[in-house]
Amino acid sequence: MINTKKSRPLIRRRENKIERNISRVITRAHIPGDLSRVSKIINRVINLSESTAERLLKNVMDDFYGRHKNIELQLYKHFEKVKEYLPENTLINDTKKELIGAYFTMEYSIESAALFNPSIVTHPDQNGVRNGELRFIMSLRATGEGHISSIVFRSGIIQHDGKLLFDQPFEFVETPVVLNDPTYDKKLFHLKLTDMKSWDKTSIRIFEKLPDIFTYGALKEGINELYQDVEFAHNDQTIKNLNWLANSNYKTKFNDDSRISERVIFPVSDNESRGIEDARFVRFFDDNGESMYYATYTAYNDESILPHLLETKDFLNFNIITLNGEAVQNKGMALFPRKINGKYAMLSRLDGENNYIMFSDHLHFWNEAILIQEPVMPWEFIQIGNCGSPLETNEGWLVLTHGVGAMRQYSISAILLDLEDPSKIIARLEEPLIVPTEKEREGYVPNVVYSCGSLIHNNMLIIPYAMSDIATGIATVGIRDLIDCMSPF
User: Fold this and answer.
1) Tens digits of per-residue pLDDT, 121-140?
2) Distance between CA 296 and CA 407 in Å, rounded?
């Protein structure tokens, strides 16, 4: 039962502080916007003598070999992106291929600006963990030059008393391989096109020849075949949407021998060209007891934001999926860890100001939202939102919330939702749980504390939280203490 006694729960800030490391770098393709320059650069390398090319490549290797795993592969991958600009019938050796790749490669420091907005989930592998302890994976938003955000990971052990022991991050970082010819479900693709109002004569004509599970290559062949039929009046916007949808739903894979802290999910599609923001991870359990890890995140392309869904079972293989429907708007979507009354459930902030809940029969489609909470306290007068997926307790669904008040100061608080009908708030804190301390208020964006997901271990709530959009700390509070301090709603 919820205690009517009102007091502040005992929140404890742990000694852990996760800070950016500017030496953690990935390689990115660096191709001039003026493509006429690409051929000029390639020709300059081709015209080098073999001995000069070997010396220049050796210099590159001497300077960068210790900063990346398998730098040769990265250079060759970037050569592949520009090899079409080679003069016709030109044959070059591996040395010049790698050297050309080096001229179209740059390093990118993924954490140079900030490392913040964390989310924490139970690690899929608990082998060797002692009784009373829990192995975890923490995701964080890493931001570098140009404010481009990506997802990085840390791992460690939560001890029985709530103390976190982090594994030492590996010095190298790497991006996954994007599968060149992913497969798509014809029925699901049809539903998404219908939702985009692009199921018309053009898409029907292309899809009538595709199998139930089709490849990206087969889709491109169908589009090209349609272009060759000069008598068919195709819809250019539909074809644009087809390509957009295919490129926005893709799969990636990390090397099997990579460590969790080496893996970086960096923007791939045009939708997310300016960043992958605020991933909220949750371990979701199906009715049959099997689990899948999902994360909702915001894709940003410098013009618009689009909510996406990421799914994985092992944190090695990831599927990136677009979310569809009229209710898929704005930021801050957080999936419940199981279905409720046979439906998927997700929190959202549809209008950028208030908290909503959505229910759906299909994980990818969300069309209706129910308002459940509006700002009422002074410290949340500007806007409220969730701080990650709800956590199930005997008393109800525990939801950490954030509120924005005067001087754009962020605070973290909590509400409790009914277990059977989570559209009903049954209790809430009347004061913030976490507000920025003097040391936490200085940073890239001052006066902000924020979280994208917590977990419960040994009846203790483990809250990783961002400090002014630059670093991350850890706070803990007893579940019983927290709920006892809530007031009935």
Assistant:
1) 999 999 999 999 999 999 99
2) 29
- Quote helix, strand, coil % in the chain, to nearest 5: 25, 35, 40
CA distances from 207 to 132, 189, 222, 231, 323 (A): 53, 10, 8, 18, 21
Residue 466's DSSP bridge partners are 450, 472
Q: Cα 50 from chain centroid?
A: 44
Task: List the one residue out of 379, 388, 372, 287 whose CA is nearest residue 332.
Answer: 388
Q: Which of 193-197, 248-252, 271-275, 441-445 has the lowest mean pLDDT?
A: 271-275
Q: What stretches of 208-284 show up as alpha helix (H) in DSSP?
A: 216-228, 236-248
CB 162 within 8 A of CB 458: yes
- Provide the H-helix boundaries in 303-360: none
pLDDT-based confidence at 299, cuts 50/70/90? confident
Pair 198, 309 in one domain: no
Handedness of CA 46, 48, 51, 52 (dihedral sign): negative
Alpha carbon 255 to chain centroid, angstroms = 19
Clarify whether residues 254 and 239 are in a common domain. no
Whole-number Å distance between alpha carbons of 357 and 137: 26
CA–CA gap between residue 139 and residue 8 (Å, rounded): 29
- What angle do helix axes 216-228 and 236-248 make, rounded to 10 degrees? 170
CA distance 402 to 383: 8
Least confident of 19-23, 99-103, 140-144, 180-184: 180-184
In a domain? residue 3? no
Per the CB < 8 A criterion, the answer to whether 11 and 433 are in contact is: yes
CATH number at residue 336: 2.115.10.20
Strands (E), 113-239: 114-122, 134-143, 149-158, 164-166, 177-178, 183-185, 213-215
Say yes or no: 191 and 322 in one domain. no
Q: Is 179 helix (H, G, I), strand (E, B) or coil?
A: coil
The mean pLDDT of 33-45, rounded to a whole number, is 95
CB 438 within 8 A of CB 410: no
> Quick one: 92 exposed, middle or buried, by C-beta within 10 A (0-12, 13-18, 19+)?
middle
